[in-house]
Amino acid sequence: MTEIAPIERIERIEGTERTERTEGTERTDRTERTERDCVVVGGGPAGLMLGLLLARGGVRVTVLEQHGDFLRDFRGDTIHPSTQEVLHELGLLDRFLARPHEDLPRVTMSFSGRSLVLADFTRLPTERTAIAFMPQWDFLDLLAEAGREHAGFSLRVRTAGTALLRDGARITGVVAEGPDGPVEIRAKLTVLADGRDSELRAAAGLRTLGARSAIDVLWFRIPRAVNEQMPFLLAGDGALLSIPRGDFYQCAHIVRKDAWHGDAASFEAMRRRIALLAPLFEQRMSALRLDEVRVLHVRIERLERWYRDGLLAIGDAAHAMSPAGGVGINLAIQDAVATANALVPQLRHARPSEALLREIQRRRERPARVTQAFQRRLETVLVRLAEPGERVPVPLPLRALQHLPALRHLMGRFIGLGLRPEHVAR
Ligand SMILES: Cc1cc2nc3c(=O)[nH]c(=O)nc-3n(C[C@H](O)[C@H](O)[C@H](O)COP(=O)(O)OP(=O)(O)OC[C@H]3O[C@@H](n4cnc5c(N)ncnc54)[C@H](O)[C@@H]3O)c2cc1C
């Protein structure tokens, strides 16, 4: 098994926050109160990268994470060249590469028995020319570790944002529930980086636009032989993604929306389809149990407006991505970089204006929209692959890619760097 990062090092509150807990006279008020330049709700890729960048720029920032650690499986594992470039710019690339990972210089697939290359990263103008597969907890642990090296950084784990503080229409901070009771954190800016299920979004009155996706994804693990290489994607009568992780694959199987009922019949149907698609896995799946299969209800959504006075949403909270193309982490990181570049000079002294927050949305919305449009195009193929009993022929654009290496490099650029790669301000 891949080693799990030593997350126990994280204490409940890290950093140099000064807080006070007040005792009321008539009834005891155990609320802890603190004031920061910025409070970030959510310690995923977007929240931790933003926390690190702000603290690096001298901003006093607190990141709240509802869980006690980063050990949540079946989340994104793909760290694209654009994210590795950000780590390079931060001087963190060597520390990143020292953690267990596997490189993917080209996205390979086997489609109805034909070996194909979907995207090629080898000619990217970046320090690293491969996707790195790394369990998300290792990546997040690195960001938290790097954040702690800056005086203004504070990470509170087991602390969930539950409500917004307001002064009239302006958002002035967050109410959270921590291990020692309620906390009020007042800040010049509150950032929602709390992911696709963000509840505070609605509390801020931000409206979500989007349509249901036609697919869901089932996640599970299958044992892997030493140094074995499976095509990243197997497609034909069904579709199976296999991400290498040491001695197992983290596998994703695409099904029609709501086709999975979580019962023995669905489980058997899944095993039969995978055995046909990947006969090598038939025997290995015998150890898999129904309760080890997780379902991801795919959504492609985005907020109409990402900000209000005193508040900004970034990452999945602003634009929930489909896992197609594995670009969610990278968009979240790019949002964080753009946000920090725009806000560091401001936040040290003053509250950012709505115009500045609007500018961040304007800058980051287009990459999110175009990527989501691309994911919707991909879904038209994925939906057919999800349909049992249909052997899907290799789609024409995929066939064309095999004859045009330049196009494969272009795809590598689109997937690996995205539409508007952001760079860390010096
Ligand atoms: C099963 C699955 C597989 C995926 N595969 C890939 C992939 O291979 N590659 C890829 O790039 N992307 C992938 N994605 C998408 C990717 O994980 C997300 O796009 C990315 O993690 C978004 O980062 P984020 O920081 O915006 O949000 P998240 O990663 O969702 O982080 C939000 C954080 O906020 C915390 N939180 C939520 N509410 C609160 C609260 N009220 N108070 C405090 N904390 C809170 C959560 O615990 C979480 O840690 C996948 C997603 C899923 C679900």
Outline the structure in words:
Residues 1-12 have low confidence and may be disordered. This protein has helices at residues 45-56, 81-89, 93-97, 136-147, 200-203, 264-277, 280-284, 328-347, 354-386, 396-403, 405-417; strands at residues 19-21, 32-41, 61-64, 78-79, 102-104, 106-111, 114-120, 131-133, 153-156, 160-167, 170-178, 181-192, 208-223, 233-236, 238-245, 248-256, 294-303, 307-308, 311-313. Strands 1, 2, 3, 9, 10, 11, 12, 18 and 19 form a nine-stranded mixed sheet that branches. It has a seven-stranded mixed sheet with strand order 7-6-14-15-16-13-17, with helices on both faces. The protein has two domains: 7-103 and 132-209 and 300-379, FAD/NAD(P)-binding domain (3-Layer(bba) Sandwich); 214-298, D-Amino Acid Oxidase, Chain A, domain 2, CATH 3.30.9.100. The longest helix is centred in the C-terminal third of the chain and has 33 residues, at 354-386. A hairpin with a 2-residue loop joins β15 (238-245) and β16 (248-256). 32% of the residues lie in helices and 29% in strands. The protein has eleven helices and 19 strands. α1 runs parallel beside α4 (136-147) and α1 packs parallel to α8. It has 426 residues and is an alpha+beta fold. Flavin-adenine dinucleotide (FAD) binds next to α1, β10 and α8.
Q: Helix and strand succession?
A: EEHEEHHEEEEHEEEEHEEEEHHEEEHHHH
CATH level 1 class label of the largest domain: Alpha Beta
Question: What level of helicity do the residues show?
Answer: 25-40%
User: What proportion of the residues form beta strands (DSSP E)?
Assistant: 25-35%
Structural classification: alpha+beta
Describe the biggest sheet?
9 strands, mixed
In the CATH hierarchy, the architecture of the largest domain is 3-Layer(bba) Sandwich
Radius of gyration: 22 Å
Oligomer: single chain
How many helical stretches? 11
